Each structure stands twice: as C-alpha cells, then as structure tokens.
Amino acid sequence: MTEKTSKKRYFRLIYGRTLRYFGSALPLCAIVGALYGDRLRFVFALCAAGGAFLCWGWFTYLCFTGWRLFGLDRTPGAKHVPFFHRREKKRIRPSFAMKEEDFDDDLSHAITLREEELDEYHRVRARWLARAFCGALLIAVSFFIRL
Amino acid sequence: MRKYILSRILRSLITVAIVFVAVFMLLRLMPLSGYFPQEILKETDEATRMTYLRNQGLLDHPLLQLWRFLQRLFQGDLGRSLTVYPKVPISTLLKEKIPVTAAFGFASMVTGIVLGIALGLLMVRYKDKWGDRAGTVYILLVRAIPSLIYLFFIQVWVSKWFHLPLVFYKNRPSSWILPTICLSLGSIAYYALWLRRFMVDEENRDYVKFAQVKGLSKKEVLRRHVFKNAVIPLTVYIPTDLLFIISGSLIIETLYAIPGTGGLLTSAIKAQDNNLVQVIVLMYAVLSVVGVFLGDLLVAFVDPRIKLTEGE
Amino acid sequence: MTETACFHGAEPILSAKNVEIKFNLRGKVLTAVRGASLDLYPGETLAIVGESGCGKSVFTKSFIGMLDKNGSVTGGQILYRGEDLTQYTTEAEWLRIRGKKIAMVFQDPMTSLNPVRTIGEQITEVITWHFGTEHEQAKREAVNLLKRVGITDAESRYRQYPGEFSGGMRQRVVIAAAIACRPEILICDEPTTALDVTVQAQILQLIRRLQKELNMTVVYITHDLGVVANVADRVSVMYAGQIIEHGTVHEIFQQPAHPYTKALLRSLPQLGVKGHALYSINGTPPNLFKEIAGDAFAPRNPEAMEIDFEQEPPSFPLSETHWAKTWLLHPYAREYRAALDERDFHIHEQRQPEQAFDYSGNPEKLLQVRDLSVRFKLAGKEFSAVDHVNFDVYKGETLSLVGESGSGKTTIGRAIMRIYQSNVTGQILYKGRPITGKLDKETVRRLRMEMQMIFQDPMASLNERAKVDYIISEGLYNYHLYKNKADRNRKVAEIMDEVGLSKDFSSRFPHEFSGGQRQRIGIARSLVMNPDFIVADEPISALDVSIRAQVINLLNKLKRERGLTYLFIAHDLSVVRFISDRIAVINKGRIVELAACEELFRHPLHPYTKALLSAVPYPDPDTERDKNPLVYDRRMHNYDADKPQWVEIVPGHFVLGNGEELALYRKEIEAS
Q1: What is the pLDDT of residues C181-191, one digit of tens each?
Q2: In whole angstroms, what is the distance from residue B48 CA to residue B53 CA?
Q3: For chain B, which domains are there?
Q4: Chain C residues with CB inside 8 Å of B215's CB?
Q5: CA–CA separation, C606 and C603 (whole Å)
Q6: What per-residue confidence (pLDDT) applies to C576?
Q7: In chain B, which among 229-248 make CB contacts under 8 A with chain C?
Q8: What count of other Cβ atoms lies within 10 Å of the Cβ of residue B202?
Q9: Is B174 exposed, middle or buried (0-12, 13-18, 19+ CB in 10 A)?
Q10: How far is Cα B275 from Cα B79, in angstroms, rounded to an integer?
Q11: In sequence order, what are the residues at sequence separation of 6 or more whose Cβ sits closer than 8 angstroms to the Cβ of residue C79?
Q12: A25 close contact with B: CB closer than 8 A
C-alpha cells in the first residue's frame, strides 16, 4: 500500500462494493415496506438488513483471520516441509467450474497477473469492510425516515 | 498466550454484541399482532392497538427500542409473556425452564462425547472390519435420514421394546433416558466420524512411523501418539456441539413434552408471543456464539502449538 | 582403508540373502526387491545408492519389519545374529529387534516428531518402553542423550515442543531417540536431504561421532554421491531391486565396474567439464510390475551387449571386497571392456573447459538491480526478506543466486518477475528501463513475453487437467502470438522438439510424465514466448542425478542456441559451478559475495561463502574424509559502529563487509 495508485484502487474497490451491496439491499427493504404498506416496516427492514450486513462483515473478518465457524476444517499452518518434499493438495474441480486461478498456478501469477488486482490481504479486507459499511449505511438511512 | 486469550475474549464480546444487535433487528420484523393476546386482538380495533403500541414504544426506531430493552435487561426485567403464559414475567418462566434444558443438554453432551469417542476408537481399531463398517452405517444413517423421522421412530418403537415411557415425567428417571440419547445421536456420529478421520490421518504421518520404528507396539503408538493428537482438534468441536444440542432440543422437547426452553420457544412461536420469542431467541443466539468461542479458548489450553506461535 | 579389511575377519551381524519383496497394488504385483543380498559387519558404515524407485528404502525397511501392509518378503532370508527375521510373524517378535537392536532415522526431521508432545517425552518413552526404566531415571538418561547429540541446555529443552527447534536440531533429537537403546544397527534413510548443506555437514559429523562412541553399524540410504564419499566404508549400488555392485568406497569411486555405477558417477555435475554436455542416462528405471529379463540396466545402456538383454548376469568378483553383476566382467568380454575404458579415457582427456564468459568487452547489462528490498508482514511484524541487494546480469551469461532455505533467493527472483508489487523498494532496470512500479500496458506485455520463469517443482506448476499442448501454448493464447491454428500447432511442435519431447505427447496430461519430462514441459512453456531472460528457480533440485544431468544439458543447449540469459536460483553450490558464469552468495536477504564462478571457488572471501564451500559434499572419498566443515555465525560480524558496504574488491569480485573486514579481505587476496 505504498503506492498512491494502489491505495486509490483499494478505496475505490471498497466504495464500489459498498454501493453494490447497498444498491441491492435498499430496494429489497423498500419492497418489504411496500408489501406491508407502511413506512414503519420499511424502517424495520432497513435495520434488520443493516444488522445482517454488519454480522456478515464481521464474520467475514473472523474467517479471514483464520477462525472457522465449526472449528473443524483445519487451517493450513505454516509449511515447514522443504520444497522438494512438498506435495500440495490439489483442488479438483470439474473443468467447467475451473476458475482462472485453477487454470494456472504460478505462471498466471507471474505472467498473466491483471493490473487491477490487489493482493489477497487487501481484497479480502475490502470485502468485509464493504459489508460492514453497507450495514452501517443501511441503519443510518433508517434514521432519516420519519415514523 | 495471555495475549491470545485476551484477544479471543475481546473478539467474542464483539461477536456477541453484533449478533445480539442483528438478531434484535431481525426480530422487529415479527408481525405486530403478536404483541396482543388473542382475545384483546378480537375486541380492539386497529387504531386503539396502534396507540397502545406507540405508547409501549414498539413503533419507535429499532435502535431506540434496543436501548430500552438493554436498560430493562440490566434491571432484571425481561418483560412479560403475552399469550403462552399471559402476564407471567419471562424471568420467572426462564428460571423454571432453564434448569431442565441445561440438565438435558449437559447429559447428552457427555453421552455424545463418551460414546462418540468410543465409537470412533472402535472404528479405528477395527478399520475396514465389521466394527468400522457398522459405525459407518450408523453415521450414514444419522446424517442421511432427516432427524424427525428417526426421532419419531425411536419414540414410538424403541420405547415399546425397552418398556420406556413415551413422554417425560419429572419424577421418573427412566423417562429421561430416551430423550437424552435422542439428543446425543447426532453428536455421537459427529465425534466418531471426526475422531476416525483425524486418527487415520495421524496414523499416516511420519512421526507415527518413527514411533513404530522406535520399537513401540502398535497399541502403544495409538494410545500415546495418535489418540492424543486426534483428540486435540476435537476439543474445538465440543462447544460447537452446543449449537446442535440447542437446535435438537427444539424438536425433542416438543416430542417428549419436556418443560424446557426449547419446547417453550416452539409453543411461543406457534402462539405468536413476541416478547417470549424475542428473549429466547436472543438467549440462544448469545449462547451459541459463546459456545463457539469457548472452543477457541479450550484448544489454546490443550494444543501446545498455539502457545508456540504466540510466543514468537 | 585399513578399517575395511578387518570386517572380513568378523562375522556379519546382519546378512540378507536373496531377499525378494513384493507389493500388491490393486491386484497388480510389484516386485520392489528382486533378490538383493547384503552383509553388515560390526562397526562399519555401508551406503546404499541408487535412483529413486529402485527399492533401497523398501529393502532396508524389511530389516525391521516396517513394510507397508500390502507388501511382504516373499523369498530369501534376513539373518540377524542367527535368527531369520523373515520368519517373524507377530508384532511381539519384531519388538525385540525394532528400535532396540536396529533403529532407523527418516529423511524429514520436520515430520518425524510428534508436534504436540515434548521432545523429552518422545525420547523417554523409548527408554521406559524397552527397558522398563522408572520415569525419573529415564528422564535423566534422555537429558544425557540430548547432551550427547549436541543440544545445549538440554534440561530446559527437554520440556520443549518440536515446533521450537530448527530442522537441524530436530534431526539431532530424532537421532537421540533412535540411539536411546544403543542399537547395534542404525539405518539412516536420506538423513540430510531435507537439510541445508551446512547443517547437513554437522549432522553427518554427529552420526560419525556417535557411531564411534557406541560402536554402531550405520547404513545410509542416499542418492547423494557426495554424502556417500563422505561417510561410507563400503558402498552398495542398487538398481531395479537388485544390488548390482558392491565394494569399498574407493573401489566404487575409482574403479566402478557396472555400467550403471559408471553412468551415475559420470552424470554428476561436479565431475563434468564446463561447456561440454554432461553425461546423462537415457530413460527411466524399469517398471517393476513386469518381469525383467537380462540386465535391468541394458535398455538404458548404449553400450549394452546382446547377452545383457537375454540373461541376467551373475556377480563377478573384482577383488576380495568388490563385486559387480555385469557381463562386462565375464572373461569373454574382456576386449570389449578394454575398448570401452580406452574410449572413456580419451574422451575425458580431450575435453578442455570452455572459455569463460568474456566480461572484458563491456558486455551489455540486461538487468540491473539497485538497492532492492522486499519487505513482508508476518503476524503484524515487518521484516526484510531481501535487504538492499545490488547486482547486474549481463546479456548472455548465467548468474546464479546461491543460498540456504529462507535466504531470500527465491524472493529476489519473484521481485524481478514483478510478482510482488507494493512491498518492493529499490530499482530494477531491464534493458536500461525501470520495471518496478506502474508501467504502461505495452511495456507490461513486452516484459511478460521477454522474461520467463521456470519452477522448482514441475508438477506443482503444471495444471493437471490441461493437456500438454494447452499448457505449452497458453502463453500464445494470452498474447495472440499466432496467426492461425496451424501456425500455433507448428510453434508448439517446434518447441517440443527443441526441448526433447516427443510430438505425440501433446495430447497427454502432465501426470503421465516423469519428473524430468515435466520439467521439460515447464521449460517449453516458457520458451514458446521466445524470451530473452529466464529466471530458473531451482529447476533441478527435485530431480534424480541422472535426470538432473539431462535438464542441465538442455538448459545449456538452449542458452547457446538462443542466446538466453539465466538467473539461476539454487541451493547446491556444486551444481551451480557447472552451469554458471558468475555466482552470487546470499545469506539472510543480503548478497554477501559475488564473483566469477572459478574466482569464487578459488578465493572465497566472506566467511559465509567459505562455510558454504566447505560444507558441500564432493564425490571423492579422499577429499571428503579429511575435510572439516567451517561454521558460520552471523554474530562474528561487528556491524554496530561500522556498517557493512558492498564493495568491488577486485574487478568483478564483490563482497559485503565493513572497513575492518574489507582490509582483511584485501590482505587475503594479496597473499594468494
């Protein structure tokens, strides 16, 4: 995050995501309000959605720090195995479900790395921050609706 | 180590708070009619009901309502039940019900751990033989068949075979057996499955081979190295088990007519008792979160690797 | 070897006769060991050498009854003090021998110890189990053992967990546990392969010392002929489940008789002549699922005689201690053998080392690295993986970065390949233009074509689900470097031919190939982009000796033909000497010395370089025996007051040091 450009890119990512979540949650809440036909339900729905988003953001953060809900899928620890004995477990996916990163490992990082991409840390951070912001935003909006 | 524990405690507090807020907000979406007992609902008209709600503060902004709820919570006032037990303070209700549920939960948790580990060990000891296969069949059955079906089956048939009471009676200890076992069936399968997985996984590791090369007998290696290493990750699961027991108690307490909180919640939802639903749901949410995080703390005490990474 | 002679007066303590071991793998029978025989004498050191998959580990594991469940000894005898171990059926019988009389050490110390029990417990349990000693007594013994294997502060370390030990220290603990019962035989299965060279030298020294103190017989299983030369009294060469040659270490290294032994020795880069193709063995070891007729090595031996394909050779004695299973030693083949020897001698004599890379004519600087630092965050703390590194790479040369694991050599390679973005400071100039930071699209595109990388583990870097054809042409797809389908196919075919892959491989999947072939695919994938500069990250470390030679030859050939420039990242100085023009030695993120290859080997200045050089095992028993590896300790530098500088001490020879040290280095150069 030393570069100004990547910092900008990072903030734009958070901002963009927040608005995307917000943009999909707001109409949904409005629909709920409209179905009941009162503003009150709209406010309640906004708050409920806001709480849910906050929760989602927080749990994304927790998972990001290595925490697992059911504790049992072991997180891979630091690899102490020297490289020539290392056997990486390969993810097996049907070919139609393969993503770019499945398609190639190191070369794609080395050679086909897209410029817009930030490192893993910042990408995940942007994800949970955006969710939490969206939650806070929804709750904040609910204050502006007169009851 | 202390830093690890402190950070975990802080983190679980934040989680509890956030989950509490979210659940409280979601509960605002309950139908407003649930704030009135049936007969009042019939007698009053829309306008009087709305004034009542407004006076009660139930139409205020949810955050404001949350603030009020918390204030009352710290004074020990949880509100009153509306429809299930009209006018009875919820705190009195809970005082009565919680001990029953807690006793069942604890008993089935212990049963689950003991029987689950025993079954897992049996499966590993007789891997690829009858013991293993029988265990696998059991695990598959428990996981594949919807719990309601086999729970019902047990209540009807097993009680007949063993001449056990069909429902719960507080003063007949034999009526405790079936519900406890039913409640732990899922956990037994889960513990057994994971213990077997972990032990088989550990058995293939180099240090197990090295322990054998050192001349230790197979049994000794299993006991000293494999079992201990495999049980450590299981401790993470023990508090998570609480989640399953909570969800299981909802069904089982209704089935066996046990006067616990699980049964209370189901009847409260059925009778649209908003106040009661709110309190029990919040309680369960907080309890689950606390349980999950207890696992993190517990594992820190049993796994030396966590102390190591923290020390650096 | 005066010691060796006395073995034959003594009775062997263990003698394996015609052992045959079969494995049942999903209905198919694999004969992993096909009648191998071996005698072990008290106090000696025997090394078993061979490529991977030739049955060395399986053979020795049968001595302690540790074969996998689906394997069994189906023939022959293993006599230990008169008892036939192959007759053992119950665990109780094995427990009298295993760990107590015959102990074993595995190759990877990182996984040989239980991570959740203290190292003390893991040693103590052996003692209490075998001797029924009381716990307190056993504990005292364990602490003594720890002291004995060179662990300082043994009392407090007794209570520590394996995670608190470094790799070398853990291997010491493993050895302590293995010798806890004072076994008569210690089997070491590649005990140092997983360790850095300097640590390896210390562990070998430790085993040798313990062997003397406890009068043990030690069996080494290894593929590293340098280690063999260092430790062994006698050597058994194993191939396709048989011991095909056996002799004292001098006999094996100086008069190898079996063509396989000769080939193994000749394919070592240490013994190659720079600029000439390294001898390499074609093909791979035979498939042991099938019946093998004749000499198993014949199909890979260009000089095989007709009889080699038809009949299995018996063993011919060469001296009292030396025998080999090859028809070459038959009296009828005497003339043919003489002719072969003659030819080999001439080939060796005619070879003159190639002219070294000419730096005098001001060669073009392809890559310039200035003050490069790469910083990482680990658990909230920042540390420099690479710390102010400076070097140039000239067009057409091979520059090697040599260092131990964790030294930051791979990080430098990746920084050059622009894999790290934000945590890199300093400058990297490629063809005179900076390539760090933000670049315009066209430059990035050009760089990604001109700079390519080859990876250490060919399998991990190849997508399992894509066919070879796709893997190789992926770069072409990404940059649309082909006119039409026919053009693309032609390009792929050309490249495959160039790296020595058969054309019909293109429709197969990577897992169908051997390690060497996979590495060829990896190389082809980079070459198809027609690069100028290649970062090769340990491309040969995961390969067997013979295949290693093939890949080295390929890399050298490509360099000559295409005028490539390599940045070669490696941990093995001996290999690097054969292929590089200049070598940079890196320690803890800093390059400590950089010089032309021969200059570095002749006049190493920095103490770390000296330690590294002294630790490299060299496949010659005479030089190996008397060597005493130096130990490098960073604390010997006093950099508090006087900061170290990166100085060109003589033209072309750079070294890191402060004023005082530099003065010392200058003196050293003048003296030599």
Answers
A1: 999 999 999 88
A2: 9
A3: 2-74 (no CATH), 96-311 (1.10.3720.10)
A4: 95, 98-100, 126, 129-130, 181
A5: 9
A6: 86
A7: 229, 232
A8: 21
A9: exposed
A10: 7
A11: C14, C15, C16, C17, C85
A12: no
CB of C125 within 8 Å of any CB in chain B? yes
User: Taking the CA of residue C503 as centre, how many other CA atoms within 13 Å lie in the half-sphere pointing to its CB?
Assistant: 5
Which CATH homologous superfamily contains domain C365-597?
Answer: P-loop containing nucleotide triphosphate hydrolases (3.40.50.300)
Q: Which residues contact C561 (CB under 8 A, 6 or more apart)?
A: none
Phi, psi of B217 (to 5 degrees): -75, 165
Q: Which residues of B touch C118 (CB under 8 A)?
A: 304
Select the residue of B19, B29, B194 nearest A55 (Cβ to Cβ).
B19
Contacts of C428 (CB under 8 A, 6+ apart): C367, C368, C369, C370, C372, C415, C416, C434, C435, C436
Contacts of C166 in chain A (CB under 8 A): none
DSSP C317-358: ESSSS-EE--GGGSGGGHHHHHHHHHHHHHHHHH--PPPPP-
User: Which chain C residues have a beta carbon less than 8 Å from that of A113?
Assistant: 418-419
CB half-sphere exposure, C218, CA atoms < 13 A: 27
CA distances from residue C231 to C7, C51, C87, C237, C254 in whole angstroms, order as listed: 16, 19, 32, 15, 16
- Taking CB atoms and an 8 Å cutoff, what residues of chain A touch C462? 105
Subunits with 3+ Cβ pairs within 8 Å of C are: A, B
Give C217 to chain B, closest Cα distance, Å: 17
| Chain mean pLDDT for chain C | 86
Separation of alpha carbons A1 and A4, rounded Å: 7
Tokens read off for C277:
């193709």
Band (A3; pLDDT cuts 50, 70, 90)? low
Q: Calculate Rg over the CA atoms of chain C.
A: 27
Tell me, yes or no, if B133 comes closer than 8 A to chain A by beta carbon.
no
What pLDDT, on a 0 to 100 scale, did the predictor assign at position C20?
A: 93
> What does the alpha-carbon distance between residue C239 and residue C56 come to, in Å, rounded to a whole number?
9
> Among residues C573, C565, C588, which one has the least CA distance to residue C411?
C588
Token readout for C219 is: 């069996």
The mean per-residue pLDDT over the stretch A15-25 comes to: 89
The token pair at B35 is: 């704030």
The pLDDT tens digits of the residues spanning C425-484 come to 888 999 888 888 778 888 888 888 888 888 876 666 666 667 888 888 877 877 777 888
Is the Cβ of B213 closer than 8 Å to some Cβ of chain A?
no
Six token digits for residue C329: 């030693």
Annotate C469-489 with DSSP letters as a single string. HHHHHHHHHHHT--SSHHHHH
The confidence score (pLDDT) of residue C462 equals 65
Q: Any alpha helices (H) in chain A, and if so which ranges?
A: 4-36, 39-64, 100-103, 106-110, 120-143
**Segment A31-38 mean pLDDT:** 85
- Two structure tokens written together for C296: 């198993």
> What residues are paired with C583 via a beta bridge?
C400, C595
So where are chain C's domains?
A: 109-180, 259-350, 365-597
Q: Are C492 and C546 in contact (CB under 8 A)?
A: no
SS3 readout for B147-178: HHHHHHHHHHHHHHHCCCCCCCCCCCCHHHHH
Which residue of chain C comes nearest to B303, CA vs CA? C116
The answer, for C181 touching chain B at a CB cutoff of 8 Å, is: yes
Burial degree of C480 (CB within 10 A; 0-12, 13-18, 19+): exposed
Q: Which residues on chain B are in Cβ contact (under 8 Å) with A87? A: none
* Distance, CA of C592 to CA of C586 (rounded, Å): 6
Mean pLDDT to the nearest integer, C129-134: 88
pLDDT of residue C566: 93
Question: Could C126 and B209 be called an inter-chain contact, meaning their C-beta atoms sit closer than 8 Å?
Answer: no
